[in-house]
Amino acid sequence: MESDIDVVYTWVDGANPFFSARFHACLQEFPSPYTGSLGPQRFRDNGELRYSLRSVEAFAPWLRKFHIVTQGETPRWLDASDDRISIITHDMIFPDRKFLPTFNSNAIELHLHRIPGLSRKFLYFNDDIFLGRTTSVNDFITASGGQYVYFHNWPLYSKTDEGLVHDRAYAHTQNLIDRLWGCQHSRLLPAHAPQLYDREILASLEKLIHEEFQVTSSHRFRSPNDLVLRVLYSFFLLEGRDEAGKHKARVLKSPRECEFVRLDGHVSGMRRAFLKIRIMRPKFFCINDDIEEATVDQETLSYLDGFLRSYFQHPSSFERRT
After folding, report:
1. What is the distance between the alpha carbons of residues 53 and 243, in angstroms, rounded to a whole number?
2. Which residues contact 211 (CB under 8 A, 6 or more apart)?
3. Cβ(247)–Cβ(142) below 8 Å
4. Sheet with strand 188-190: strands edge to edge
5. Distance separating alpha carbons of residues 86 and 80, to the nearest angstrom
6. What is the C-alpha to C-alpha distance for residues 113 and 33, in angstroms, rounded to an integer?
7. What are phi and psi of 301, to 5 degrees?
């Protein structure tokens, strides 16, 4: 039923002193050679969560509860006393606390199904993913009770020995899929869009490849041999389960369906991208922070904030009243 679907967010504030101290202490104890996964853009909070919540409340009022997974911080503007909001810390979902603290989103995502009180089916959002217009449960669940699996029209990266660490993790996950369910000639990248997951399917996947789950869980920072949940889960539904086409793949080609924007500090490019979103009003859009510098030009942040504030003008019921 529509009322039985929750929302899960992962959120971090890299500027929080508590987070920063733990991050640097962990990096000193467990040094990582993959500096591309350690940049400030991986942990920077540009206020996206506030507006993503506004988008969900405005365009998906059929969703039930909201679970925000963090190191332990709570956004200052969030009214955590709201009955529909729960703050979930990593130690609540990691059965092996020896792997904590962790700063690896791939490891964290493998344990989302352990959130206490979580609905069987749930939508997972990174905090930089937004709904651009009205959605319904039929955007995620097929008439036969299966799931729609969304893809970009981009090939899934396949080289494990070169490239960015997250791309190599895509390739590592794809190699595992090949071993489990047979080699496919080509696959597409699961979209930067809300991901629907089934808690029981995730638990069964963990049992199936428990050792791989443990290896990724042990990585404090992103690693090329991480499992990437959205890749693993998407192709498990489509290739690993014999359900006579119950689950359906959808490639998001139209700008009315999905837009992906890289926040790179070039305001002129941002203006064009955001204008396109205003005009097309895609169902889903993602604004990915790709600025490697520790400090972001204030003009860039002001323009981002202005765009989000104007697109999602009305505060959600989860914001503190000042």
Report:
1. 34
2. none
3. yes
4. 188-190, 148-155, 248-251
5. 7
6. 30
7. -65, -40
Count of residues for the chain? 322
Give me the number of domains the chain comprises. 1
Asked if residue 71 lies in contact with residue 107, where contact means CB atoms within 8 angstroms, the answer is no
Give the pTM: 0.94
DSSP tag of 147: B
Q: How far is the CA of 213 from the CAs of 24, 90, 108, 119, 208, in angstroms?
A: 25, 16, 11, 22, 10
Residue 317: inside a domain: no
Mapped onto helix, strand or coil, the DSSP state of residue 41 is: helix
CATH code for the domain of 90: 3.90.550.10
Joined together, the tokens standing for residue 133 give 């217009």
Question: What does the pLDDT look like over 81-103, one tens digit per residue?
Answer: 999 999 999 999 999 999 999 99
pLDDT in tens, 149-179: 999 999 999 999 999 999 999 999 999 999 9
* Cβ count within 10 A of residue 78: 20
Range of the domain at 169: 2-311
